[in-house]
Amino acid sequence: MTAQNSGQTASPLRLGIAGLGTVGTGTVKIIQNHAALLAARSGRPVAITAVSARDRMKNRDVDLSAYAWEDDARALAVRDDVDVFVELVGGHEGVAREAVTAALRAGKDVVTANKALLAIHGQELAELADAEGRVLRFEAAVAGGIPVIKAMTESLAGNQIRRVMGVMNGTCNYILTRMESGGLPYEQVFEEARQLGYLEADPTLDVGGIDASHKLAILSAIAFGTRPAFGSVEIEGIERISIDDIRRAADMGYRIKLLGVAQMTGRGLEQRMSPCLVPADSPLGQLQGGTNMVVIEGDSVGQIVLRGAGAGEGPTASAVLSDIVEIARGVRIPAFGQPAQALSVPQAARTAVPAAYYIRLALADKPGALAKVASVLGEAGISIDRMRQYGKHDEEGVAPVLIVTHKTTPEAIDHAIAALPETGVIAGAPVELRIEEV
Ligand SMILES: NC(=O)C1=CN([C@@H]2O[C@H](COP(=O)(O)OP(=O)(O)OC[C@H]3O[C@@H](n4cnc5c(N)ncnc54)[C@H](O)[C@@H]3O)[C@@H](O)[C@H]2O)C=CC1
Ligand SMILES: N[C@@H](CC=O)C(=O)O
Ligand code: NA
Predict the structure, then answer these.
(1) In angstroms, what is the span from residue 212 Cα to ligand 3's centroid?
(2) Average pLDDT in the 52-70 region?
(3) Which residue range(s) make up the domain with 176?
(4) Nearest C-alpha to atom 4 of ligand 2 is from which residue?
(5) How far apart are alpha carbons 399 and 60 in whole angstroms?
(6) Within-domain flag for 226
(7) Residues 6+ apart with CB under 8 A from 33
(8) Which residues are NADPH-binding (predicted)?
(9) Which residues surround ligand 3, an ion (CB under 5 A)?
(10) Does the predicted model carry a pTM greater than 0.90?
């Protein structure tokens, strides 16, 4: 083995790590535990020189005594003894944005796990990185430990991508699957997700579909050559999904997933994030716990399915290290796979791609009630594929009815859902969910 590839005598790659929470602590642990392995694979030692977090005195179950401490991440980002600034603080404004910007301007390469920052300010940061000749890497930002950024920017670079789809939020998948399999209440499974380190600092980003949409916007930029634009994703979270829906969907052979889809259409790139039904026996339907799955369809390669841990300390830190080792090796790829100025593919405002839909409603026990529902759907141009009426009526005399439609447009469904309460034969608001073809 030569001195270069043994990694022992070459100059070290010096890291400044800001943020010592779930991901930051995990990153420090890997660097400490795998020093020889990382040096051998990088061709040079990988060394932390300084760290920063909010509370210096906090017990983090990791020895930080060998590293300089900075109270301000922005000061850490521009230190002379830092080659790579590793941002693991989070948030799309304030310290994270300012420190990353300062680091790039100061000639540092940047590694981050911050999908919010990239989805909202990715274009500006990628342009800055290009202008400064620095790299901005973010494998951890999408689907945690799954090497999806690398797959998309490098391994699939020869493909025209047709569709990218997947479950990209560990918290939501954990909640949806544990509620069903464990028969557990929302509050309990939410707390379990917290213990596992899955939650964002603001968990409404998770359950509101926002975190997953940040990830979809990032993937779209790489896959389709569009600018990362979180504002262009049509978003709905899992807040309105009840255990009732999870069970009823299962009765019809489906599972509910918070599913992101990005695909090219004649109107431009459509990006949607919403709770959808997928066949229970499909790979997406089988996905349990905090696991993520990304399905990529390319013109030459066909369909690729990537599956793995999407959140938590070890898997996310593993992805951070993949970026660090690539930088140490001298790999220099534009943030979104091509120069940021070249990202230009137009985005559509709202999805128009037809799909089958699942509708659940509470139907009054009255003669002709079902006929009135069928007539509303018929008037909207929606044809019914399957239907199930539950015989047991509650004390208000209503019983659940489940309908699976043939393919129709989102506009037709909106129209029918708005018209159904006017029939006077249903109680409450009907629930509608898209059935995505997987
Ligand atoms: N937890 C996970 O499974 C994953 C998290 N991420 C992303 O990684 C980043 C970090 O996430 P976590 O480690 O889970 O968060 P965390 O809340 O556990 O840790 C955040 C760290 O940043 C520090 N911090 C907060 N404000 C600061 C400031 N003004 N200056 C310096 N340090 C500050 C905190 O003291 C803490 O050490 C976020 O962008 C998150 O979205 C990405 C993938 C998975
Ligand atoms: N909160 C996120 C963490 C990883 O990105 C999730 O639950 O997936
Ligand atoms: Na990843």
Answers:
(1) 13
(2) 96
(3) 148-310
(4) 311
(5) 53
(6) yes
(7) none
(8) 115
(9) 139, 142-143, 146, 148, 319
(10) yes
